[in-house]
Design a protein that fits this description.
Elements (H helix, E strand, L loop, with lengths): L7 H5 L14 E2 L16 E9 L2 H4 L8 H10 L7 E9 L5 E6 L2 E4 L15 H14 L4 E7 L6 E5 L11 E4 H7 L5 E7 L6 H10 L2 E6 L11 H10 L5 H16 L11 E6 L3 H16 L2 H14 L6 H4 L1 E3 H11 L3 H17 E6 L11 E3 L9 H5 L3 H5 L8 H11 L9
Parallel strand pairs: 1-5, 2-3, 2-6, 6-9, 9-10
Antiparallel strand pairs: 3-4, 4-5, 7-8, 10-11, 11-13, 12-14
Helix pairs in contact: 3-7, 4-5, 5-6, 7-8, 9-13, 9-16, 10-12, 10-16, 12-13
Length: 428
């Protein structure tokens, strides 16, 4: 079903500007043939990039001004598909139809037998995502799979399409995280990467851990600039080490991010961070948070000042107050240091132990080091404080439909609102 997307966040995520590309991708025809037929050994990795540029990322940062789409395609082609990796990308730009490419060294091969070849597709439709994944799995027998989503992102959606069809007046559509879990049903995804803003939230990580077969999440809890993920370095890691595991590669992605941030910054890039999260550890983390929250709910008035101080100390550089999210690690660490109740203090320490087990890699810049610890979490001051709907195409109702809030965190939020002078909203 099509949903109208809020566009307020989109320009906010696209304020950076850089020099234009000098080179353009080399487009090869499908007569180059399939690589796998000549392989004696199956590749280790299947790398998929769901590249949705059918929005202001292409019109504001793309084309002759910057060419952010071309930049990442060139990075992919720097290594391309080899005996050890199969690389596919579904590219939908603001102008023109979508094309699914097999990425080769220095070239792109059009997959003309893809069901939506050369059509205007809705990248916000889970059927399009499923068709891409299905095609790649049918073409490649690789052992491991990484899929990266390239677009605007929020705690509610992972792709936004401004031109979902050729019909006049068609409204923009978003691919929600819940729709992603539906589209990936039946597929093992070893790493899910988000080359976009705000996906690295506790609620999102837990949703993928319980509703999809995903091993690791690599995402940012805050802003992601145009430079994003280093695709060439990821492919180089795979090419150099056939035995690299999903855990090792997800950590390597955060290391390469940090290395990029040591170079001359790309303007707003410096407020960025990337974390690798072991989704297999999210159950333990969620359980520990729920237990801690339950200890504080019945006597929230006595904890109010400590929670507000922790909230203030856990600001995410993206603009925490505007989006009502805090850094989970910084928030819990502050609580642990300042609560007097030994039981609550012990519960906070247990959360930190589980958190440090779940967050296995962290890439930061000189600015975000020490401020971002890996995952954000929803914590607005009052019900009216949240700008979820305006900024992120979300709502309290949508938030409450996620699995994590029902484990005690929504009770904690509502008790906090009530103690802080707000009103309880009630939830199922």
């Amino acid at each position: 079903m099509m949903r109208k997307c809020r566009q307020h966040l989109l320009m906010f995520c696209s304020i950076v500007a850089v020099a234009a590309l000098a080179a353009q991708p080399v487009i090869a025809g499908s007569d180059m043939g399939s690589k796998n037929g000549n392989n004696q050994q199956s590749p280790t990795w299947r790398v998929l990039v769901y590249l949705d540029g059918d929005n202001n990322l292409d019109t504001v940062l793309g084309g002759d001004e910057v060419g952010v789409v071309e930049t990442d395609l060139l990075e992919l082609m720097a290594v391309g598909s080899t005996d050890n990796v199969d690389v596919f990308t579904l590219v939908d730009r603001f102008a023109g139809p979508a094309v699914l490419y097999r990425v080769l060294p220095g070239a792109l091969e059009e997959m003309t037998d893809y069901v939506f070849h050369n059509q205007e597709v809705n990248m916000g439709d889970p059927e399009v995502l499923e068709s891409f994944v299905s095609f790649a799995f049918s073409e490649s027998s690789a052992l491991y799979t990484i899929i990266v989503f390239w677009d605007h992102g929020t705690p509610y959606y992972i792709a936004w399409d401004d031109n979902p069809s050729e019909e006049e007046g068609a409204e923009p559509d978003c691919l929600t995280h819940k729709e992603v879990t539906e589209a990936l049903d039946g597929y093992r995804i070893d790493i899910l990467g988000a080359d976009e803003c705000l996906v690295g939230q506790t609620e999102v990580a837990y949703e993928y851990s319980v509703n999809a077969d995903v091993g690791y999440l690599v995402a940012s809890e805050c802003y992601t600039g145009w430079r994003g993920i280093a695709y060439d370095r990821i492919l180089e890691e795979i090419e150099l080490d056939r035995d690299i595991t999903p855990e090792e590669l997800s950590i390597a992605m955060t290391v390469h991010f940090t290395d990029m941030m040591l170079d001359t910054p790309y303007q707003a890039e410096m407020v960025n961070s990337k974390a690798a999260v072991d989704l297999g550890e999210m159950d333990a983390l969620a359980e520990s948070i729920g237990y801690m929250a339950g200890l504080m709910v019945d006597d929230m008035d006595s904890y109010l000042s400590v929670i507000k101080a922790a909230q203030a100390s856990a600001q995410i550089l993206y603009g925490t107050n505007a989006i009502a999210r805090v850094d989970l690690g910084a928030f819990i660490d502050s609580l642990a240091q300042n609560v007097d109740d030994p039981a609550v203090k012990s519960a906070c320490e247990a959360v930190m132990d589980a958190y440090n087990t779940a967050v296995i890699g962290l890439g930061t810049s000189m600015i975000t080091e020490g401020l971002h610890t890996g995952l954000g979490i929803y914590l607005p001051l009052t019900p009216s404080h949240s700008l979820e709907e305006l900024m992120l195409n979300g709502s309290l109702e949508e938030y409450q439909s996620y699995a994590f809030p029902q484990l005690g965190w929504m009770d904690f939020i509502e008790a906090y609102w009530s103690a802080n002078g707000g009103s309880e909203t009630g939830h199922a």
